Amino acid sequence: MASTAYEDYLKAIFKLAEQSPEPAVSTSAIADRLGIARASVTAMLKRLHADGLIHYARYQGAALTDAGWTIAVDMIRRHRVIETFLAQDLKLPLAEVDAEAEILEHAFSSRLIDRLWDHLGQPEFDPHGAPIPRPDEAPVERRQMVALGSLAIDEGATVVRLAAENAADLRRLTQLGILPGQFVRRRASQPGSADVVVTIGRHERPLAATLAERVWTIRSASE
What we know:
The chain is α+β, with helices and mostly antiparallel strands. About 40% of the residues lie in helices and about 15% in strands. Among the domains are: about 5-65, Winged helix-like DNA-binding domain superfamily/Winged helix DNA-binding domain (Arc Repressor Mutant, subunit A), CATH 1.10.10; about 145-220, Ferrous iron transport protein A (FeoA) (SH3 type barrels), CATH 2.30.30.90. The strands form two sheets. It has a six-stranded antiparallel β-sheet with strand order 3-8-4-5-6-7. Helix 2 packs across helix 3 (about 40-50) and helix 5 (about 95-105) packs antiparallel against helix 7. The longest helix is centred in the middle third of the chain and has 23 residues, at about 65-90.
């Protein structure tokens, strides 16, 4: 069984790779995500490579092997099933479920996660819109997504995933009503403003451009 530290590293590599078109993840990106010094990250990556869980070469970054992928997908499944349970059954705010799931994911067995997933109705996606891997299956993003900030002016779309992980950002999106399933339409920004303006229902709301890039949508002509 992989150690908690191994699981955290493999999950971090998986999630960073999930958000990037590049096959390998840089040491600095992993260090930033985990809040760990780069030298310590490099040492751990060498251990993971020696144990056959990642491909790693200096200055080229890290990529999961099949064995590492299996562990990472299991951790992602645990995390997203727990998040769904916390939001759906316990009604925890969206901004709080990630931190709680981080604590619980190492304590839950795969068998318990499977039972919990069945209890929830075998959901395909977590509360953020991220795909939940099925048992023994790697997650496949089946939808053609585009960042909210990349929509053309007056183009409409349905929100399908919130890639923001910061609690303050998630609270902001929740307050604005920008949640999976919500139809939005991009509007022209005010002159000199870097904000992205979107119509949500009957209201126009400004959204920081950096945050708009963390909201993934599927283009749609109407609700």
